[in-house]
Amino acid sequence: MTIGLIGAGHIGSQLARLAIRSGHAVVISNSRGPETLANLVTELGPTARAATPAEAAAAGDIVVVTIPLKNYRDVPVAPLAGKIVIDTSNYYPQRDGDIPELDNESTTTAELLQAHLPTSKVVKAFNHIMASQLTTDGTPAGTPNRRALVIAGDDAAAKAAVTALLDEFGFDTVDAGPLAEGWRIQHDTPGYGPRRNAVELRADLAAAKRYRDM
Ligand SMILES: NC(=O)c1ccc[n+]([C@@H]2O[C@H](COP(=O)([O-])OP(=O)(O)OC[C@H]3O[C@@H](n4cnc5c(N)ncnc54)[C@H](OP(=O)(O)O)[C@@H]3O)[C@@H](O)[C@H]2O)c1
Predict the structure, then answer these.
(1) pTM
(2) Which residue minimizes the CA distance to atom 19 of ligand 1?
(3) How does residue 128 score in pLDDT terms, banded at 50, 70 and 90?
(4) Measured from the CA of 89, which atom of ligand 1 is nearest?
(5) What is the pLDDT of residues 31-85, one digit of tens each?
(6) What is the DSSP string of the chain?
(7) Mutation to probe ligand 1, out of 5, 6, 10, 149 (largest number of atoms < 8 A from CB)
(8) 177 Cβ inside 6 Å of ligand 1
């Protein structure tokens, strides 16, 4: 596959490394232009290239959006039509400014991106693991106590494809349900951050509380 990346910072660069390690091609992009990604492309090797966000969106079989949430409206819509889009975002008001529909908990971060990309299949993933751990914590399938990561999404086939990708990257998957359940893995919930296996992570999701109930 070709993995398109919109965002090449802490998470984007690490997911590019994992994708290359798993034998995929990557097309990476950021806000400042492909020329600013020359060092990363050199590190990643011949199956990586840098491009604009629209080109990365068009090239990817699966496309990862991994930018500060406040910029989600910049994500190109047309080239992502019909595609699986992985959303890694979290909401930090001090970074992203106040987003009223998140403050009042009437929606979730990945639902915002899904509303912006109405015909794409958005899957929430990789939002609760520190970037550095993406390349250190993966282990082969079947390893006892393997680390698990949460996904959420409204399209079963898209979730199956992302589950397969997570497995390649070294992680078990715990499905939190539809995108609307993604709040169960937002910051300040039990599963947000610590290393968890699948059994532990399911318990964390069940124990999660809305901010209004904390
Ligand atoms: N850091 C973590 O450990 C971690 C863990 C889980 C989830 N997350 C979440 O994942 C997302 C990305 O986090 P990060 O730590 O990787 O951020 P980061 O290191 O600040 O990198 C952000 C990337 O997004 C690019 N970008 C910003 N605005 C853009 C736009 N309008 N169009 C295209 N690219 C744009 C930036 O490009 P330029 O540099 O060219 O502006 C940069 O490559 C955030 O929502 C964060 O909360 C982070």
Answers:
(1) 0.98
(2) 9
(3) very high
(4) 45
(5) 999 999 999 999 999 999 999 999 999 999 999 999 999 999 999 999 999 999 9
(6) -EEEEE--SHHHHHHHHHHHHTT-EEEEE-SS-GGGGHHHHHHH-TTEEE--HHHHHHH-SEEEE-S-GGGGGGS-SGGGTT-EEEE-----HHHH---HHHHTTSS-HHHHHHHHSTTSEEEE-SSSS-GGGGGTS---TT-TT--EEEEEES-HHHHHHHHHHHHHHT-EEEE--SGGGGGGGSTTSTTSSS---HHHHHHHHHH---GGG-
(7) 10
(8) no
